[in-house]
Amino acid sequence: MIEEILPPGVRSSEAFDDLAPAPLFPEEAALMAGRRARRRAQFATARACARRSLAELGLAPAPLLPGAGGAPRWPAGVVGSITHCDGYRAAVVARAAEVTALGIDAEPAEPLPRGVLGLVASAGERAALERLADERPGLCWDRLLFSAKEAVYKAWYPSVERWLGFADATVRISPEGTFTARLHPAEPPPGAPTRFDGRWLVRKGLLLTSVATVRTPAPPLPPTDPTPLPGALDRPVNA
Ligand SMILES: CC(C)(COP(=O)(O)OP(=O)(O)OC[C@H]1O[C@@H](n2cnc3c(N)ncnc32)[C@H](O)[C@@H]1OP(=O)(O)O)[C@@H](O)C(=O)NCCC(=O)NCCS
Fold it and tell me: Under a CB-based contact definition with an 8 Å cutoff, are residues 132 and 178 in contact?
């Protein structure tokens, strides 16, 4: 399902339960020791998804441990993102040479708990959500905005290893299944992204969002013309 909102070059794997075997490496198991059964199961299934996605890039299974700020430490040259919520787990990866930032998030397609929207959305964003609800009632636009911001955070953090608050991004959602995020933290680190483009999907009681920045290939060099310009070679240089 999530592949529908990912650009080419991004590999993905998802699961809707924790029933398939999902063995952990000893380092991963140690990390989960003492954690609740639900967290352990989600962590393990998400790791299995990550290993399947990495295998599609030709990479062998290896421990996937948290690094700075909780972001997964992907193999060198890889970007990726993980999400889990009730009834859904997914991992996506891509070659860093092709995709520079990647973030995904999954949420139940239900309204946010009372009081949360005010913490995550500006007055302008809330007004936009009301317009979207008038245009297309029945969709949980508040939860979608929240999910989009979570995906933005997961794409933002690994490149700069700095906190980004909910007020530091302005998300504009299109009812056609896309969104943009303008990033305006008070003190942006040098080279920090200033904008992300994302996509969203609502299906099977789930709401999925993704953010991906695809590296634009360098423009091709202009063709060299072996034919000398008229008169170009019949004058000595500096003549
Ligand atoms: C970190 C956070 C985004 C996780 O989102 P969530 O909806 O709670 O949980 P999800 O299941 O979707 O995602 C959890 C996964 O996110 C990943 N993750 C955690 N911290 C991360 C970080 N700093 N950067 C990138 N990915 C991170 C991990 O892979 C984690 O799974 P794992 O622990 O099994 O490896 C969220 O808890 C959080 O701290 N949000 C506040 C910051 C924010 O969203 N700001 C908005 C900016 S516009």
Answer: no
